Amino acid sequence: MIEKQLYKLSIKAQEEHYLLSSFIRDSKQFQKDLLKREGELLQKFDDLPKELPDDFILKVNVGDDNTKKSYELDKAMTEIIVGVMTKKNQMTFKYENLIHIMTFIYSTAIFDALLIDLLKEILIQNENSMKSNKTLTIQKILEHNNFESLKEHILNKELLEFGFKSFKDQQKYFVDKFNFDFANSIEIFDGASEIIETRNVHVHNRGVINSIYLENIKKTDFKFGDYRQIDEDYLEKSRDNLHYTINVLIEQSLEKFA
Questions:
Q1: How is 15-76 classified by DSSP, letter by letter?
Q2: What pLDDT does residue 167 have?
Q3: Which residues span the domain enclosing 85?
């Protein structure tokens, strides 16, 4: 049973990986096309004098041959349009960095969700692994009408607590609870830890390296107050790293429980 569920999880991870790759490619093409169109529009104003005379009138034709309309723009309106278009074009140049950050954060959110999905399948198929010395109050127990409802509560509580752990503590959870062996994946997992900490500084500290990052990531050239840039190369490597990390965890799960 668990083989089938883990196979579905592996396919889901692969689909998310391809989705992100396609999104980045298409978003950058959109930015490129937009910059080209904006540049072409701004070019039409290149021949205008820097200082427009007070009686300046600019005749503009808008639309194709069937819907063409003519407008006359005075000095004030022309300056407003040129100013707005120039600022918009400057904003468009910044889209690439925004695309990188948004996609990066989304990729780590997908990674977090896949980890939870993986652990959920393991716990469902191995109920004994939910045994622990944690306690429940009588009031909490009485809130459930049957044992299945109580088990679901315990499962969800375990998943919630796992989700709030750092990735290093999540690794330790798999090792301690299920005897996973990550000896051959240390470099990959260290990379995943750095990726998650980078996500945290971008979500909580505008991408600026803080003491928490430096405390959790020992091997780094970054210093307190540095900006953690997410360029195209780092984005691609981080997606590949997280995808590989999930696959390692799925493979370990299959070895242990299939």
A1: HHHHHHHHHHHHHHHHHHHHHHHHHHHHHTTTTS-SS--TT-EEEEEES-TTT-EEEEEEHH
A2: 93
A3: 44-93
